[in-house]
Amino acid sequence: MSKGLRSLAISSWRAAVWVTIGLLAWAIAPAQSQTAVADPALARLEREIARLAEIAGGIVGVAALHLESGRRVSLNGGERFPMASTYKVPIAVQVLTKVDRGELTLDHMVALEPTDLSPGSGTLSDLFNKPGVMLSVRNLLELMLLISDNTATDVLLRLAGGAEAVTARMRELGIEGLRVDRPTKQVIVDWMGIAEPAPWSLERFQGLARAVALQDRQAARRFDADPRDTATPEAMVALLEQIYRGRALKRETTELLLDIMRRCRTGEARLKGMLPPGTEVAHKTGTIGGTTNDVGILTLPADAGHVAIAVFVKSSQKDVPTRERAIAEIARAIHDFFLFHPAPAR
What we know:
By secondary structure, the protein is an alpha+beta fold. The protein is built from 13 helices and 9 strands. The chain has helices at 3-36, 40-53, 88-100, 124-127, 137-146, 150-159, 163-172, 184-192, 202-211, 214-220, 233-244, 251-262, 320-340, and strands spanning 59-66, 72-75, 81-82, 109-111, 134-136, 230-231, 280-288, 291-299, 306-314. It is globular.
């Protein structure tokens, strides 16, 4: 082949390559642009969430996912927040995972000992302070999730294999931004800034708690900077999604967990506070110090779908009712948006 013909062939080949690349880019570009361009309606919702978050004071974290369409919004969604009692949801998942695997049964009876009694929310420490009381795993799950009983939680955490096992289960589910580290009694002891009595007893704890001066207790509450027992809003929503889709647990245990969460008796003024009467909410609350939380799954009316939502408040100096109003306002804004926009605009 002559030198001129060879040059012409090379030029033709290069031109063909560039034409092919151009055609591929043209074919791919519309799909890329459709996914890259932000939904302006979602952007407006995020701005409204940020505006409502100012009610709570402190720092507010929000993540919400419309489970049918996959659309999501967030505010400080990747920041860690103390879970407080919302960490009882991942504990329940690990306990029920052991049930699914045949390592534990719901009717397994557990004897409560005086050293099991934990301070804080719930009724077991008040009602069952004598040896000999026995409760089933199912009873303990209901107490933990319905009324946020701390004694039931710490017993279940032990049955779950400990905090490390709960966090390991989260990693198995692909959830990185959520960790469980301590039983509730240790969380409360650390938050109050007192030395844990050894051996543990509720009476010794109460005596130490009364002796802690207010200023010392406030100085000890470096709670928000502690990475232990924290989650990002996005990680908590990812867990709720795994539960809802039946990926975390088998069908029977998934329904058991959601049924108990639908009957949660705490936090009526939070996620549910401003929703239309009768709205189904499977949720779990959490409160300690400047932290006020609620996480759950909202069922929208008129077959508009479901929303997994986490609203965390930390470092707030405002009273709990004010923080709860912020959570309720945010939940209502998200509820109404996805009710009236159940699918992306075309």
